[in-house]
Amino acid sequence: MSLQDRLTELRDQGLADIKSADVLNKVNQIKVDLLGKKGPITEVLRGMRDLTPEERPKVGAYANEIRDHLQNAIDHRRSELEEAAVNAQLAAEKLDVTLPGRTVPQGQPHVITQIITELEDLFIGMGYEIEDGDEVEEDYYNFERLNLPKDHPARDMQDTFYITKEVLLRTQTSADQPRALESHDFSKGPLKVLTPGRVYRRDTDDATHSHQFHQIEGLVVDKHITMADLKGTLTLVANTLFGDQFDVRLRPSYFPFTEPSVEADVTCFNCNGKGCAVCKQTGWIEVLGAGMVHPRVLEMSGIDPEVYGGFAFGLGPDRFAMLKYGVDDIRNFYLNDVRFLSQFYKKG
Known about the structure:
Layout: H1 3-20, H2 24-35, H3 40-46, H4 55-93, H5 111-125, E1 129-130, E2 136-138, H6 139-142, E3 167-169, H7 176-183, E4 191-200, E5 212-222, H8 227-242, E6 248-255, E7 258-267, E8 284-293, H9 295-300, E9 309-315, H10 317-325, H11 338-341
Parallel strand pairs: 1-4
Antiparallel strand pairs: 2-3, 4-5, 5-9, 6-7, 7-8, 8-9
Helix pairs in contact: 1-2, 1-3, 1-4, 2-4, 5-10
């Protein structure tokens, strides 16, 4: 058999093998077997040394033609298999756009955050500024500037976590108020500030107490401020959160930083003032403490109490949330149970 006949045979056999190859690995292996350095075509070309000088160019040209033919066939078959693989993958992964979409659960503000935001919006509308103080505070501002000097017995009710002898986790957001009094320029108008935030006390955790809770305190200082202004403000707060069918009453109380001091009660939401187990048959539920700013607090900030006066109040949004929604255990707010918390989301 001549070399040309042998090359023709190899071409025909190679084309048949390439056409029948159904995976890329087989195509690659055929290329190595046919066109590699140890392949049959290379072996045939080694026999050209036995040809006459006139035959060698013809056989060489024919061998190159067959090599190119086989290489083109391999490239074409490889492209076909790659395209088929892509089409198969697309067919397997295609999406049916006519199917209904899946609803993605949307988050919501925590119920206490909702209460705080609602109150902030209310007081901003009345011209108050929102102050966000530090949770780590000096004893001087947390107690002394609020008329609670060292060893004052009222400090026992606010026993807290001390970092050093003079630095602690604040027990009340009232600590922001002396700083506001120091920096305010009364020639530009009255001081009206709201201070929401987290506070800490060494309370025993139970259904109505927590060592960590939230507080919102308000302070107004100007000329001619009276107890009537305080009650009007608290009535507006109660009506905003609980509805305008509720009334507010003030009872005498004691706080070192206000004089006179009062406890504010609202009509019991459970019995509407008729008396029940929730309000202990009184028809009222205590919601916050308040009073007229103590003259000593004003004096320590360099403000003349004979000219200026004001009122202050403090409320717990945690407790307000309990009252508003009838929650009987404050710890439920901090368990991160979405089933519980999602009940209180009010859209819009």
